[in-house]
Amino acid sequence: MIPLATPNLSGNEARYLQECVDSTYVSSVGPFVERLEDMVAAASGAAGAVATSSGTAGLHAALLTLGVGYGDLVVVPSYTFIASANAVAHCGAEPWLMDVALDSWTLDADLLERSLEAETETRDNILVHSTSGRRVAAIVAVYTLGLPADMDRITQIAKRFALPVVADAAAALGATYKDRAVGDLGADLSVFSFNGNKTVTAGGGGAVVSADATLLAGVRHLTTTARVGDDYDHDRVGYNYRMTNLQAAVGCAQMEQLDAFVAAKRRIAARYNAELADLAGASPFPAPKWADSACWFSGVVVDTPLPQVDDMIAQLRGRGIAARAFWKPMHLQAPYKDAPATGMDVSDAIWTRVLTLPCSTHLTDGEQEQAIAAFHDAVRALGRGQ
Ligand SMILES: *Cc1c(COP(=O)(O)O)cnc(C)c1O
Q1: From the CB of 56, is ligand 1 less than 6 Å away?
Q2: Quick check: 131 and 83 in contact, CB under 8 A?
Q3: pLDDT tens-digit profile of 28-40?
Q4: Residue 3 CB neighbours (<10 A)
Q5: Residue with CA at minimum distance from ligand 1 atom 5
Q6: Could you identify the atom of ligand 1 that is nearest to the CA of residue 87?
Q7: Nearest CA owner, ligand 1 atom 8
Q8: What secondary structure does DSSP assign to 226-278, as a single string?
Q9: How many angstroms separate the Cα of 279 from the Cα of each of 56, 86, 201?
Q10: Could you read off the pLDDT of 176-222 as tens digits, one per residue?
Q11: Cα gap 358→269, rounded to integer Å
């Protein structure tokens, strides 16, 4: 079976891990943690970075640092990985789910603006959701599949309503938006993930980046048990969200290959687009002009009259190709089915039709050829079955 995406550990990973063992720096203090923070800040065009134990932990700490608290609403696109919504819930807040735009699968800026205009009002200098009376505290913009959201518009709307913005850039390291680096798009805080299935992994982990040193200091404080001074003095309920030196050792070795990894991901995506997207019943993932995606996952959108994605996946697996469906929107998930939700036409239309295909950075041309041939076969087989 050709896997969907496996880590590419062909660089200095083993050497750096051995350095951790030799030096005994295996825990959350160590030179690789600082080195990784510097590398992530530099690669994302941000002034600084705080490494965290996961992307989810980074999102949680980012939201808390921006003041999100109990009972608040936070705008989150419904089409995302559940961690974006969970981080909001971990603050005691609830996501206000909104639809994504068809041309990017990222937060629909027009819908965002219309909804804030129509459904909120300012009371005592606080933006509240009119019908529930709850404070609207922040916006989470998700960089779907490594594609930045339309951040010029979103940050402009956020400014108008005095809302802070967190970018869930989990899989977007290496992406650009209007030729700007992904950590420099106007979000107050942007969060990356180094989970095992991301383009750059640390086994697990995350990083929060920003242009604002004060905000970053807030994130660092919260993620390191809110300790003040060198002894056991803490000024609020903090978290143990630190990354270990072991994780960072792998992360540094991976970051050394970021450009090559992203180039490989883009090459793979371009080839699937060239060889599958003109097929009857298949179209490419969206690629708006304003961004250059990091192409975390590749695949196709399966249209009618093709059968359900599940049938395609079964066909492909039968031919040795590990294909998979993608995110199920938040408004259809048990924990968030009762959350406020605005306009889900696009999320409802796309989520059952996304099919991801093998796209490891070390996928060979021959393997991709097999995946493409298997897709053609599967389309033909399913076509005959209709
Ligand atoms: C991977 C991912 C996360 C979660 O990151 P973890 O490091 O696994 O906690 C959050 N949001 C999005 C969009 C992701 O793809």
Answers
A1: yes
A2: no
A3: 889 999 999 999 9
A4: 12
A5: 55
A6: 10
A7: 195
A8: TB-SSSS-BSS---B-PPPHHHHHHHHHHHTTHHHHHHHHHHHHHHHHHHHTT
A9: 37, 37, 33
A10: 999 999 999 999 999 999 999 999 999 999 999 999 999 999 999 99
A11: 10
Mean pLDDT of the chain, nearest integer? 96
Has residue 305 got a pLDDT over 70? no
188 close to ligand 1 (CB < 6 Angstrom): no
Q: How many CB atoms lie within 10 A of CB 256?
A: 16
- Tell me if 84 CB under 6 Å of ligand 1: yes
Question: Tokens 């295909």 appear where?
Answer: 357
Q: What is the largest CA-CA distance in the chain?
A: 71
pLDDT digits (tens, 9 = 90+) for 320-350: 999 999 999 999 999 999 999 999 999 999 9
Q: How far is CA 91 from the centre of its chain?
A: 19
Residue 342, beta-bridge partner list: 98
In the predicted structure, residue 383 carries a pLDDT above the cut 80: no
Position 249 pLDDT exceeds 60: yes
Cα dihedral value 185, 215, 86, 233, nearest 10: 160
Q: How far apart are CA 49 and CA 239, in angstroms?
A: 17
- Alpha carbon dihedral 212, 216, 219, 220, in 10-degree steps, equals -170
Handedness of CA 106, 109, 110, 116 (dihedral sign): positive
pLDDT confidence bin for 277, thresholds 50/70/90: confident
Which mutation among 60, 76, 81, 241 tests ligand 1's pocket best, with the greatest number of atoms within 8 A of CB?
81
- Contact between 350 and 79 (Cβ < 8 Å): yes
